[in-house]
């Protein structure tokens, strides 16, 4: 539970620091709202991530199939899903209040909730792909390594697992960041009526963040 909490805390802080800064605090502290949302999302994600292991240990489920599902197959998709969830919740003010959309010359045309929703959705998907794949590939590799008995000692297996995870993370970071451009595009027809009527541009742009 602690490791899950620490992991999601780090990724959520990174997401907050690299989001779109259009929304400003007026009648309330936007930062406080983001912190409350983020703490709730981190706590929920940590509990969901740790739940399968707690359930398995609580009911002493030690069968090979249970071990395979809980320890090998389930953590990666669950971590990817929870990473996407925390990214979406921590940046929810962006689609609640909207983000700035600009024309090709960089002139701000308006503030759009639909563009904010698209930016947050893209970021959440890329974050889920990043961590889901990063932990799935090493788990799959280590499964075959263990079956082939290539690692003779627990220390060798641990070293191979660390190396595989580090390599997967190094390879997936540029892939996930390049899934969607940081300067995203959205069709004018998909935006709010007030923005549609204020420009003749067929396509507008926004800062997606990382």
Automatic annotation (TrEMBL):
InterPro entries documented for this protein: Mtc (IPR004686)
Source species: Todus mexicanus
Domain of life of the native organism: Eukaryota
Topology within the bilayer: Multi-pass membrane protein
Pfam families the UniProt entry points to: SFXNs
Major localisation: mitochondrion
TM ranges: 35-56, 124-145, 157-180
Localization: Mitochondrion membrane
Protein family: Belongs to the sideroflexin family.
GO molecular function: monoatomic ion transmembrane transporter activity
Signal peptide span: none
A GO-annotated cellular component: mitochondrial inner membrane
GO BP terms in the entry: amino acid transport; mitochondrial transmembrane transport
Name used for this protein in its record: SFXN4 protein
This protein's UniProt keywords: Amino-acid transport, Membrane, Mitochondrion, Transmembrane, Transmembrane helix, Transport
């Amino acid at each position: 539970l602690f490791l899950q909490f620490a992991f999601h805390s780090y990724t959520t802080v990174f997401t907050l620091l690299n989001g779109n800064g259009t929304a400003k605090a007026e009648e309330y502290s936007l930062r406080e709202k983001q912190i409350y949302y983020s703490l709730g999302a981190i706590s929920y994600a940590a509990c969901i991530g740790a739940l399968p292991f707690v359930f398995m240990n609580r009911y002493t489920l030690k069968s090979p199939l249970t071990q395979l599902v809980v320890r090998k197959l389930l953590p990666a998709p669950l971590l990817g899903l929870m990473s996407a969830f925390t990214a979406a919740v921590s940046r929810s003010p962006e689609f609640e209040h909207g983000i700035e959309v600009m024309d090709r010359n960089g002139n701000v045309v308006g503030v759009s909730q639909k563009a904010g929703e698209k930016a947050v959705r893209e970021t959440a998907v890329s974050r889920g792909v990043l961590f889901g794949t990063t932990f799935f590939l090493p788990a799959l590799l280590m499964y075959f390594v263990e079956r082939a008995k290539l690692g003779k000692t627990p220390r060798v297996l641990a070293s191979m697992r660390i190396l595989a995870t580090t390599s997967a993370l190094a390879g997936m970071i540029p892939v996930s960041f390049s899934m969607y451009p940081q300067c995203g595009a959205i069709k004018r027809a998909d935006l709010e009526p007030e923005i549609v009527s204020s420009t003749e541009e067929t396509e507008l742009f926004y800062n997606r963040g990382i």
